[in-house]
Design brief:
- The structure holds 2 protein chains of 2 kinds.
- Chain A is an alpha/beta fold.
- Chain A folds into 2 domains: 2-202, P-loop containing nucleotide triphosphate hydrolases (Rossmann fold, 3-Layer(aba) Sandwich), CATH 3.40.50; 214-289, Alpha-Beta Plaits (2-Layer Sandwich), CATH 3.30.70.
- Chain A is built from 10 helices and 14 strands.
- Chain A has helices at 40-47, 90-100, 106-115, 129-142, 159-176, 187-193, 211-217, 230-235, 257-265, 278-291; strands at 2-11, 14-24, 29-33, 55-60, 63-64, 75-78, 147-151, 179-183, 196-201, 204-210, 218-224, 239-244, 247-253, 270-274.
- Chain A has a 6-stranded mixed beta sheet, sandwiched between helices. A 4-stranded antiparallel beta sheet of chain A has the order 2-1-4-5, covered by helices on one side. A 4-stranded antiparallel beta sheet of chain A has the order 12-13-11-14.
- In chain A, helix 3 (106-115) runs antiparallel to helix 4 (129-142) and helix 4 (129-142) runs parallel beside helix 5 (159-176).
- Chain A is elongated.
- Chain B has helices at 4-13, 15-46, 64-85, 88-94, 99-131, 140-164, 168-196, 201-213, 224-227, 229-232, 238-256, 273-295, 300-323; strands at residues 56-57, 135-136.
- Chain B has a two-stranded parallel sheet with strand order 1-2.
- The chains are: A alpha/beta, B mainly alpha.
- Chain A binds chain B through residues 11-12, 45, 48-52, 69-73, 76-77, 79, 81-84, 96, 98-101, and chain B through 4-6, 8-9, 12, 86-88, 90-99, 257-261, 263.
Chain lengths: 292, 329
């Protein structure tokens, strides 16, 4: 459906992305994770050709998006904020978007606007943060894209609105097989809706994996030792999720038998093996450098 | 129509300014001609025995060109600098159009307004002048060609400046600086040549004349010598016209490769920083040294002190303008 081929970008003299490649399939929800400033938004802006890559290209169904921008009728980007919408009401925006995107589905957008009780005559800037996000998402879906790029779509909104937004995305994928590329700091959201995830670190895309295999690949170990073994564990480069005195919560790759045996050799008084969630993997991966 | 939606979107963003420009540029001059000629006739009616000279309409004596240019200046700033500073350029560039088309639509929208409103103004003014057989200071065609090419040049210059710069202020400053740069250079070079060279007054006048003829903002200077240029040189309109074409290509190619990063830099293209800083310093040195030379009874020491002051001012000014980042919204 959409393919990133060796994308590289330097901003203000700093290499933000270095040869990033990724292929997204139809009906897939892909979650991109990374620390603040790691280049997640830059990837989305590069895909949508808002900024141009120094090297590499983006293909939509094997067509270069740079050379044939008409294919962007099928690829829509929803940024964190959309200042262009600010001065328009729903009705005015529908008119503008309809003229820019011939496939814009007014009936569908009316239906969603009514469902979420978004005022049609209020200007976008007058709406609350949650309503703005819902509004933007409805506009993006009404364009009837094949791929939708979402930058922090659930940022700054309450639990109910968040639930509605996520459900809207799931429905869209289920009904129309839209491909969704999402970045979010809300890992529980990513965990709930994404079928595949990737981590952006040190300017490259790493650990692209299925959500299911993430849980299969990692295990969480809760252990209680007789003495403080913190330094020893750090030396072995085992991820410590949490520790307090002799109580440790550790993250291991399931196939890292060597580390597991080594921990066992420390004769823990308590040893519990538990499933992991995405947040724990994220903290182990990115918080690790800070922690040990 | 291909790009029709883009036209509509671009028009909505600058609708008010475009409507004001259209109305003003279409009707201001015909209204002025009617108003002045009516006043003249009223005066003749009131004082039939007065020894009044025949009425001659003076093209260019009103602020019509300046006001229309101000509209165009702000429209161009809105279309580029403000759009980028407010983050709306992201939306524009994310649309399913080539960058070349986005630039062309922005430009063609306003160019069309300049062309149509100037045409309306020409038809109305020309008809009125012909109907009442009113004498004019220069051929109507000639004035309108100059007016049209100057307006097109002012707009294209400001738009092109927006494709090179990162903020609305930088865009405006770059456009204004480029508009007066040839005259400034001609002025400081003539002053320096006067100080050191064995050049005749006629030779220096030729350089100065060349300098001001290629100055984009020439029409806006109030001095008589500049005001009369378009009547002295019947084909003067070709100079702003040629510059409009040049600025169009500068803007067009810059926009296609537009970095579009909202980082608060003066220039989007870092490669421009040093050459522009050198120009600013050079102007500072040449200008202040000539002033120093003149104000110190033509002494070489005065020239050197002026050069040092000019260099210092040039360095400080260029540093704060070019290298100091501004905060983005």
């Amino acid at each position: 459906m959409i393919e990133l081929k060796n994308l590289s970008k330097t901003l203000n003299g700093e290499r933000v992305l270095d040869s990033v490649s990724l292929k997204l399939e139809k009906g897939e929800i892909f979650g991109l994770l990374g620390r603040n400033g790691s280049g997640k938004t830059t990837i989305l802006r590069l895909i949508q050709q808002i900024i141009l890559p120094d090297e590499g290209e983006v293909l939509f169904e094997n067509v270069s998006m740079m050379e044939h921008p008409l294919v962007k009728r099928k690829v829509v980007y929803m940024p964190v904020q959309n200042p262009f919408y600010d001065r328009y009401s729903y009705r005015e925006l529908v008119k503008i978007l309809k003229s820019l995107y011939p496939d814009f589905d007014v009936t569908y957008s009316n239906e969603l606007i009514n469902r979420y009780a978004i005022p049609e005559t209020k200007k976008y800037r007058e709406l609350s943060t949650g309503l703005k996000k819902q509004f933007s998402l409805i506009m993006a879906f009404a364009i009837r894209p094949a791929v939708i790029l979402l930058d922090e779509p659930t940022d700054g909104i309450d639990a109910v609105t968040r639930h509605d937004l996520l459900q809207l995305m799931i429905d869209e994928v289920a009904e129309r097989e839209t491909t969704i590329f999402i970045t979010s700091h809300r890992l529980e959201d990513i965990e709930r809706i994404c079928s595949r995830i990737g981590f952006l670190e040190n300017s490259t895309l790493t650990n692209v994996m299925d959500m299911d295999s993430l849980k299969e690949d990692y295990i969480k170990i809760q252990a209680v030792f007789e003495e403080d073994v913190h330094l020893k564990i750090r030396e072995r480069k085992i991820s410590i999720l949490d520790y307090s005195g002799v109580f440790y919560t550790l993250l291991l790759q399931r196939d890292d038998v060597e580390s597991k045996n080594w921990l066992r050799s420390l004769n823990p008084k308590v040893w519990n093996q538990l499933p992991v969630n995405l947040e724990e993997v994220f903290i182990a991966k990115f918080g690790g450098k800070r922690r040990w | 129509m291909v790009g029709g939606g883009l036209f509509e979107k671009e028009f909505k963003q600058v609708r008010s300014l475009c409507i004001f420009l259209f109305l003003f540029n279409s009707f201001a001059l015909p209204f002025t001609v009617w108003s002045e000629y009516s006043s003249y006739l009223d005066f003749l009616k009131k004082y039939p025995d007065s020894n009044l000279e025949p009425f001659v309409f003076q093209f260019g004596a009103d602020p019509h060109l300046l006001i229309s240019s101000m509209f165009l200046f702000f429209i161009a700033i809105n279309q580029m600098g403000t759009e980028r500073a407010r983050g709306m350029m992201d939306f524009t560039l994310s649309l399913p159009y080539k960058r070349s088309k986005i630039f062309l639509v922005k430009w063609a929208l306003v160019f069309g307004i300049i062309l149509s409103s100037t045409l309306i103004s020409f038809i109305l003014t020309g008809s009125y002048l012909e109907w009442f057989e009113i004498a004019v200071s220069q051929p109507t065609f000639n004035y309108y060609f100059t007016l049209f090419s100057t307006l097109a040049m002012v707009y294209t210059l400001t738009l092109a400046a927006g494709t090179l710069t990162g903020t609305p202020f930088a865009q405006g400053l770059t456009a204004v600086s480029a508009a007066i740069l040839p005259l400034l250079f001609a002025l400081v070079l003539t002053m320096n040549a006067d100080a050191f060279g064995n050049f005749t007054y006629e030779e220096m006048e030729k350089w100065f004349e060349f300098g001001y003829l290629i100055t984009p903002a020439l029409q806006f200077f109030g001095w008589r010598i500049f005001q009369d240029v378009s009547s002295i040189y019947p084909f003067y309109f070709l100079i702003p016209g040629g510059m409009a074409i040049l600025f169009f290509f500068v803007g067009y190619f810059s926009f296609i490769k537009h970095p579009n990063e909202r980082n608060g830099n003066f220039f989007l293209w870092k490669q421009l920083n040093l050459p522009v800083q050198i120009i600013v310093i050079l102007l500072g040195v040449l200008g202040f040294s000539a002033v120093g030379y003149g104000s110190s009874n033509e002494s070489f020491t005065g020239y050197l002190i002026g050069a040092v002051i000019g260099a210092a001012i040039g360095i400080i000014l260029s540093y704060y303008l070019i290298y100091k980042k501004t905060k983005q919204a």
